UniProtKB/TrEMBL annotation:
Organism whose genome encodes this protein: Wolinella succinogenes (strain ATCC 29543 / DSM 1740 / CCUG 13145 / JCM 31913 / LMG 7466 / NCTC 11488 / FDC 602W) (Vibrio succinogenes)
Protein name as catalogued: DUF507 domain-containing protein
Lineage: Bacteria, Pseudomonadati, Campylobacterota, Epsilonproteobacteria, Campylobacterales
Entries under Pfam families matching the protein: DUF507
Length: 234
């Protein structure tokens, strides 16, 4: 186990907490942890981990976007109806989203069980949540990086469409996979700016709300819908 000490108090404290929580005494004991803290300055977007969290309410809309883009691409012939494409895409999207939710529940329990230590060391709860989430994701083989995640989903959806003979095409699998990837990525990007606004609002609350908790999710969804309405999406 390697722990690189740095002189930044926030990184140092966060490293100590992670080191303790992922030790053999942790509820998730035995997880190997190598913490390399290469910077003495906390990057502003560190907790985002280059991820974009998909949410269950998004799944049917993203699935429909995939179906529409495939049909309008000119690359495929339908062996079934367009609704079948949406159903298959929705299944894999929801499955992936639920796996992330289960992962976050583990992190939430870990955070709540060690809240006193985290507060004592003055560690930012949101930073802790995302760093712990990243570590558990690595241990469980769940892909967080958005490009890799969307690529994996695109492969799953395409493989199932081929297996079920929903579509036929005369171009390479890569071209069709890229249509699916761009549909997911393009749709999600509509919401990225909204998520940034919502996260900033929550971070500016006078009373700190812990990321990953039920309260955080409720506040997030409320503010999220308000921003969607402002932009004419609802």
């Amino acid at each position: 186990m390697i722990f690189a000490f740095v002189f930044d108090r926030d990184y140092y404290s966060l490293g100590l907490v992670l080191l303790a929580l992922f030790s053999a005494q942790s509820p998730y004991g035995g997880l190997s942890l190598e913490i390399y803290l290469k910077s003495c300055r906390i990057q502003q977007n560190y907790t985002r981990l280059n991820t974009m969290k998909l949410r269950l309410p998004h799944a049917p809309y993203v699935a429909n976007k995939i179906a529409l883009d495939l049909v309008s691409s000119g690359y495929i012939e339908l062996g079934s109806n367009m609704e079948k494409i949406s159903q298959i895409a929705k299944h894999f999207l929801e499955e992936n989203i639920k796996k992330e939710a289960a992962l976050e529940e583990k992190v939430r329990l870990l955070l709540e069980a060690n809240l006193e230590e985290i507060e004592f060391l003055r560690v930012d709860e949101r930073q802790f949540f995302w760093m712990a989430k990243k570590k558990l994701a690595e241990e469980e083989g769940f892909i967080l990086a958005k490009d890799d995640r969307y690529s994996h989903l695109s492969h799953q959806i395409l493989d199932e469409l081929i297996k079920e003979e929903v579509i036929d095409f005369g171009v390479s699998d890569t071209i069709i996979k890229n249509v699916i990837f761009k549909a997911i990525d393009g749709y999600v990007k509509i919401y990225e700016s909204i998520e940034d606004v919502v996260i900033e609002k929550i971070e500016n609350y006078k009373r700190k709300i812990i990321a990953g908790t039920e309260e955080y999710d409720m506040v997030f969804e409320k503010l999220y819908e308000e921003e969607l309405k402002k932009r004419g999406f609802l």
